Amino acid sequence: MKVLILGGDGYLGWPTAMHLAGKNHEVFIMDNYLRRNMALETCSEALIPAPNLHDRVNIFHSLGGKSMRVEIGDCSDYRVLEKVICDFSPEVVIHYAEQPSAPYSMRGFDEAKRTFDNNLGTTFSLIWAVKEHVPDCHIIKLGTMGEYGTPNIDIEEGWLNVEHKGRKQKFLYPRQAGSLYHTTKVLDTDLLWFYVRVYGLRVTDLMQGPVYGLSTDESELDERLLPNFHYDDIFGTVVNRFLVQAVAGIPLTVYGKGGQTRGYLNLRDTLQCVELAMNNPVEHGEMRILNQFAEQFSVNELADRVQRVGNGMGLNVKVKSIENPRKELEDHYYNAAHSGLLELGLEPHLMTDDVLAVMLEQVIHHKTNIDVQKIMPRVKWK
Predict the structure, then answer these.
(1) Catalytic option among 66, 141, 185, 374
(2) Which of 42, 142, 209, 284 has the fewest C-beta atoms lying within 10 Å of its C-beta?
(3) CA separation for the pair 102, 358 (Å, rounded)
(4) Which residues contact 37 (CB under 8 A, 6 or more apart)?
(5) Catalytic residue among 11, 173, 181, 212
């Protein structure tokens, strides 16, 4: 297929681009280095320096013989995105092009506005460019399980059947995001659902849990092809942060009581999920929502796993509870459905001790790059 990847320089976008190019799809990448620039501005650089996007593409081509087109441009600028879509005529657009950090979105007004303008602007521009120029195109949008929040009922897969005063109807599942970033993702879903209903667009919205992993089959060709691995408090996930803390000899920082439960996903499974969505497109006027994670556990359970594996490797890992900088429930019910992707054929990679050990070994290999000043919380919700 002809696949346009928005945000193709990112932690998920770049591995997706390599994976699909390796499967002989015609891949076009678009990015404006927003996340790289925000990381520089906030002293939150990745653990492993990455070449620029053109160089990455050239390295991948020299090793694997697969080509990709690149456009450095702002996906939230309608005219810039429209030109790319008219030129390439994609059959699939994979939309990763959003500011992905909850803490960044809560730093202050400027960061909040930047998050709002980029995330909603890109989604809105994409909707209109597809509607006007490639109406048969399948939009695959990366959402987040964070849209749902932590409701005291089971989380269904995007939709909820409601019976009220003797009448029934299916609605989008009620969502209660815990940051401005997550709220922009809620608004994305609402925008997409409106244009699907009115104009018959074809959309798959992937509600993804936190992703972990440092490499894929393609990136193992050369270290310069590794994804952007952030471990700081702003762009790093709790898994990445714990792995780096274990190697650096810093106690794993559990926020508050550590009961926060989420659904987690291996990076390799993100590639599977996106490819499954591509290969099983929806019809016109259909919006499919899939909860994208493989297993769920609490922060305390995650810390216990990292500590156990790290100690087995001689790292002497300790765990420390600190004040929670976020406004979130720490003791809550959490049971989310996620059967859709399994039914499409997902074969999950689970977070086994061996998987954690391999990631710890990779972090150890780059131990000299760790900056301990980037790890502790620098942003508070309150």
Answers:
(1) 185
(2) 284
(3) 28
(4) none
(5) 181
Active-site position among 16, 144, 253, 261: 144
Q: Tell me, what's the pLDDT at 30?
A: 98
Contact 263, 336 (CB under 8 A): yes
What is the C-alpha separation between 356 and 354, in angstroms, rounded? 5
pLDDT of residue 382: 83
Burial 209-220 (b: 16+ CB within 10 A, else e): bbbbbbbbebbe
Locate 346 and state its tokens. Answer: 């997902």
For residue 265, the surrounding DSSP H or E stretch is strand 261-266
Return phi, psi of residue 308, to 5°: -60, -45
pLDDT at 91: 98
CA distances from 91 to 27, 133, 135, 151, 204 (A): 11, 11, 9, 36, 14
Domains and CATH numbers, the chain: 2-374 (3.40.50.720)
Matching residue, tokens 């762009």? 235
Q: How far apart are CA 178 and CA 98, in angstroms?
A: 17
Under DSSP, the state recorded for 219 is G
- Structure tokens, 314: 């001689």
Residue numbers in the chain where pLDDT is lower than 50:
none
Task: Give the Cβ contact number of residue 274 at 10 Å.
Answer: 26
- 144 tagged catalytic: yes
Structure tokens at 64: 């694997």
Geometric angle at alpha carbon 9, from 23 and 281, rounded to 5° = 45
Provide the pLDDT for residue 69: 98
Q: What is the dihedral of CA 105, 106, 109, 111, to 10 degrees?
A: -30
Whether residue 253 lies in the annotated active site: no
- Report CA-CA distances (Å) from 318 to 236, 308, 310, 312, 374: 20, 10, 9, 13, 19
Cβ count near 290 (within 10 Å)? 25
The count of C-alpha atoms lying within 13 angstroms of the C-alpha of 235, restricted to the half-sphere facing its C-beta, is 23
Which residues are bridge partners to 254 per DSSP?
321
β-bridge mates for residue 296, sequence order: 263
